Amino acid sequence: MSRGKQLYEGKAKVIFEGEEPQTVIQYFKDDATAFNAQKKGTINGKGILNNLITGHIFTHLENLGIPTHFIEHINDREQLVRHVDIIPVEVIVRNIAAGSICKRLGLEEGQPLDDTLVEYCYKSDEHGDPVISGEHAVVLGWATEEELEIMHYMTLRINDFLSGLMVGMGIRLVDFKLEFGRFVDEDGEEYVILADEISPDTCRFWDLETGEKLDKDRFRRDLGGAEDAYQEIARRLGVLPENFNA
Ligand code: TMP
């Protein structure tokens, strides 16, 4: 499988043209950023682990009937995915208060929420991914009502599945971020499918027993041990390669 020209470089991934039309190659970097790239660094081996973790979770989701862009792994840092037009509305799911919502609304970190909270953000680095309402998305033309409904429905199913998967591994799924895209099949039919990644970069994972943070907050908050945390998630998911050496 040879990759074509570079189409896009994001903060954690690079997208290249694939061999087949309607496919692209997603390359996972070790680069880590936080606070809208004001803080930059490297988490050694992160790209390899996030490629494995995302592929594993997306395969489970496909098997549950949730359409995703994932096709197959190509090598340790690359996966073949369907080419989508990313909907510029990030979906944040919160089961427990943590991170930006605590600052924004004065909540205490660790406070359980009465129900799953779904928030939308406008995907724009220039504007710092601000929180928006569904109405903003529709009125400003970023997503249709129907797309928001599909995204919301898939998001709740993903949360149910992922929360259960994580509890089985002794981990609490605190919150996470999803991105969806529009995919046009060979018959010209357009679908909304899950895209991007699900990894310790995009989720908060707390150990159920100790409360230890096993995600990118170790980097964001200078807690140390980010490499070990990513490896621990991969290990518990059963995808950590033997003798893995970042
Ligand atoms: P937040 O508390 O900073 O709003 O983050 C909520 C969740 O979304 C957390 O699991 C991290 C994830 N997230 C991303 O994946 N990308 C981002 O750019 C941000 C801000 C958060």
Summarize the structure.
With 246 residues, the protein is α+β, with helices and mostly antiparallel strands. The protein is built from six helices and 14 strands.
What does this 3D model show about the protein?
The chain is α+β, with helices and mostly antiparallel strands and 246 residues long. It folds into 2 domains: 6-82, Phosphorylase Kinase, domain 1; 85-224, D-amino Acid Aminotransferase, Chain A, domain 1 (2-Layer Sandwich). Helices cover 28% and strands 33% of the residues. Strands 8, 9, 10, 11, 12, 13 and 14 form a 7-stranded antiparallel beta sheet that branches. A 5-stranded antiparallel beta sheet has the order 1-2-3-7-6. Strands 4-5 form a two-stranded antiparallel sheet. Strand 12 (171-184) and strand 13 (190-195) form a beta hairpin. Helix 1 runs parallel beside helix 6. The chain starts with 5 loop residues before the first strand and ends in a 9-residue tail after the last helix. The model has no long low-confidence stretch (mean pLDDT 97). Thymidine-5'-phosphate (TMP) binds at residues 92, 99-101, 129, 175-177, 202-204.
